[in-house]
Amino acid sequence: MSKIFKYELKIILLKPYVLAMMIITLLYAYYILSTETILGVSDTAPFSAWSFGKYIGDATLVSTLVTLFILSTMYSKSQKNVSILTDVTGFPVRKRIFIRNVIIGGFFLLTNLLIFITGCIFLGVLFGELYLGAYIVDWLLITLPCLVIILGVGNLLGRINPALIYVFMGVVILMAFVMSEYSIDINGANYYEVMSGALESLKGTETPFTIAPTFLFTRLVYLILGAAALACVTHKIGEKQKKDHGAWHR
Asked: In terms of Cα–Cα distance, which of 69, 67, 64, 71 is closest to 100?
């Protein structure tokens, strides 16, 4: 199994463009910190959980798109040809898909962890004040639903047609920018700007960080949607494997 893991790691992640995309994501994260976060979101402090959450969400939009793109390569024609060869080895398809998802999910988590660390270092050096507990909450609320959506919806669409992953990437961008006032973006950034702005205009002063039930509900919906899609993919793989196994015995 370790040989299959190393092989899949090599063909999925150990490529120059993957490292380049990670570096670009982190450079974009720094750009957000130095141009937007440093000013504070809706007149809140740059080191407030409001500002940090907006930063994590904005940077996660890029890491989500990058990870979906990497996921799409799993369903390319060249990769399907490779899969035909690896199927001959008799290694279970479910295990191979699981390994691939671990690798891709690990890439996304590592990227978002580096985004988190970059933000903490930036704010710590400039302001010397951090709210790590609140920052971790921001990171979890944004990262975990995105991870499950990527692996669930991404794999489901990829199995239907790889082009649908790119369509889904467009939907993610649409929800982040065009529908920003509804705060239903998958990357979760808009909540921090819309809610902090609404509270600031209502009270006239900076408001303590709070997580609205509606935001929690939205994040829960994405978790459930992604998990359901991932379960559907797993079921379909199992059914296909049974049919192939039965056809081979005939």
From this structure: 71
CA–CA distance, 98 with 179 (Å, rounded to integer): 34
Place of tokens 């407030």: 48
Q: With CA atoms as reference, report the closest residue to 166 among 80, 73, 74, 68.
A: 68
45 in Cβ contact with 206 (< 8 Å): yes
Q: To the nearest whole number, what is the mean pLDDT of the chain?
A: 88
The pair of structure tokens assigned to 47 is: 């080191």
Q: Cα(123)–Cα(105) distance, rounded to whole angstroms?
A: 27
pLDDT in tens, 119-132: 999 999 999 989 99
What's the whole-model pTM score?
Answer: 0.90
Helix (H), strand (E), coil (C) string for 80-118: HHHHHHHHCCCCCHHHHHHHHHHHHHHHHHHHHHHHHHH
- 22 exposure class (CB count in 10 Å sphere: 0-12, 13-18, 19+): middle
